Each structure stands twice: as C-alpha cells, then as structure tokens.
Amino acid sequence: MTRTVKSIDLKAAWAAQADELSQAAHAVLEGGWYILGPRVEQFEAAFADWCGGGEAVGVANGTDAIVIALEALGIGAGDAVLSVSHTAVATIAAIEMSGATPVFVDIDPRTFTMSPARLAETLEGWSRRDDAKGLTPRAVLPVHLYGQPADMAKISEIARAHGLRIIEDCAQAHGAKIGGRCVGQFGDAATFSFYPTKNLGAFGDGGAVLSRTPGLCGRMRQLREYGWRERYVSGRRGRNSRLDELQAALLSVRLGRLSGENRTRIALARRYDAALRGLAGKGLAAPVPVPGHTHVYHQYVIRSAGRDRLKAELAKHGVNCLIHYPVPVHRQPAYADGPLHGAGGLAHTERAAGEVLSLPLHPWLAEEDVDYVADLLVRFCQGDP
Ligand SMILES: *Cc1c(COP(=O)(O)O)cnc(C)c1O
Fold this sequence. Notes:
alpha/beta
C-alpha cells in the first residue's frame, strides 16, 4: 500500500489554530494600523523573551535581518565576513548586500556547521594570502543549520582572539539550545527568518534581529525604515525592511505553540533515530547528537553515498524528500567568479552536498508516517526492493 508523506504541511499549521489566527487577523484588518505598530512591538517583546532575553527588531525577512545586523555593526565594503557555503544562499547574498566579502569556511562533517578548526586556520593564515589583500576580517557568521547549533563555545573563543564580531544565523534554529541557553544569545547579534516553512513561520515573509548589545537595536530600528531618526529625518542611510502588523499578530499566535512544536519535532526525530540505528554500518548515517546541544530538527538530515537512488526509491513509495542543499553556494552559477575559500578548502562541504537528504519531519507528521519512511530506508539498506 502506498501512502503519501509530504516534506512539510503548511495547511496543518493553519488548521491547528484556525480560530485564534482568524481572530488575530481580523482585529488587525479592522484596526486600521498595518505596518510597525503595537502588534509588532508585542511580538518583538514576546519573541525576545521566548529566546531568553535581549531585544528583538522585526524586519521584512531573514535575509534583510543579516544585512541590517551587519550594517548596524558597521561592517561593509573592505570587510571580510567568514561564513559557510553549506547553507541557504540567502546567508551569503546578505553578506554581499552589506558590501562585505564572504569567505567560505568548511564545515564539520558530523554537524554540518562551521568547523572551528578551519575558522582558526583561516584567520591565522590571513596575512599570508594574496587573494585577500585589502580585506579585513571583521565578523564570523555561523549558521545553526537544520536546527543544530554550531559550536559557539569554540567559535566565540576564536572570534574574541581575533577581534571579530559574531552574528548567528538562526533562521533554522528558533529554540535550539547550547547548555540550556537558546541560540541567538552567543554573539553580538542573531538573525531569524519567519518564512512559512521555518520552525516559527508566518503566513508571508518576516524576520527579526535579536541583540543584547547596547545601542545596536536602536540603530537597526533606524536602518529598517529609511534611516529615520525621527519621522522624515534620516540620520543615516537606511532602507525599507519592515515587519507588518498582520504577520506580527499571526506570529504571536504561532509563538504560543513553538515550544510544543519543537518538542514534537524532537520526539519524531528520536523515533527516526531508533529505527535507523542499525543502518550506520550499511551506508546510512543519521544525525549525530552533540552532548549539551538541543537540536530542534528544522530538518532531519541523513547522509548516504547512494542519496539520489534512495531519494528516487522513497518518491516511488509516495515519500517526498528534499535536499538541503544540492549545490553549495560557492558552486552556484552566480558565484562562479571564484569566491574566497577558507584554509583547507571545502571538501566536507562538497561531499555533504552529494550525500544529504532531508527526511519528512514537521510537527504535524504522524508517527506512522515516520515508521513507514524508516521501514523503507531499512529495506533499501538491506538491498530489498
Ligand atoms: C531561510 C533562511 C534565510 C533567509 O530567510 P528569508 O526569510 O527567506 O529571507 C537565511 N539563512 C538561512 C540559514 C535560512 O534557512
């Protein structure tokens, strides 16, 4: 019997809270205030609180959040920002929009996040390279990819030793924790996306920057609205990147369930873990837990040398899997002009792109669907069609 297992189910997010969401939307539409108003303020306060403190600034999307964080920290042309190539292209597009130059540091193949060792080597060898002349390393921008926290203890230590700012890309990791503290609390600023498929998703675009750095949020509030210091007076050169009242009101409703939804994701991931445990020796690797880290499984990503065959086989049985990401950013046509690589090259990044597969996992997925997918994987690994 074939069933259909979707990789994500956005209608279910609506259905789970349809009454509350409708009421919230209706109140905004009737209220006559649509952009940057009281609902945005309420959501900013509630979200910062949920993340464990600091101040949140709502913006139009997660890409702008990165641009605005970099600009507020004074990072731009002539500056190098060290990040990763195994990420959403948005991370890198944002660095370039700020005027800064991205440098691709390889990943740790177990966690798919920035390798601290490679970061350190890159910074230590900086003055000896010819291709980075005229560029000053100013910031490190690790990505908590798939919901898995990057190694912030080591990355922070290296950043401090080299005088770099830290911006965490938390677009996939709302509520992921290191030693009980939420990601977003480990750098100068942290950026979030509320794109509908993220762990906290709006019903349209949205984003936020979180920071505890004094003065930074005020600057970001100006940057998101024409650089206005007060109405019609631009104290700096800004842009338009505002969160609207409708999305903020809907996000406040969704935020009420985020902790529970993350717990459901983790429970479903544990179910996959248990079913896939025996397959490590058969060429299929499940996500590796990191002691002290709480992974919130924005994606449940396995790796397999036979990834493309495996994906086709699952599709044949009604299981829709996505690949995050099939082409690393430095291999994208738009980046064919030879971007800067970190020390040691990008071998782990390139290998991951050919092997990763995101299994269906979202808070509305049934346990039976997990069992069905896991069973197909077990049969595939045993060579049993
Ligand atoms: C989604 C995402 C972004 C960009 O967010 P948008 O809201 O789509 O602009 C940035 N970084 C990562 C890692 C993402 O997953």
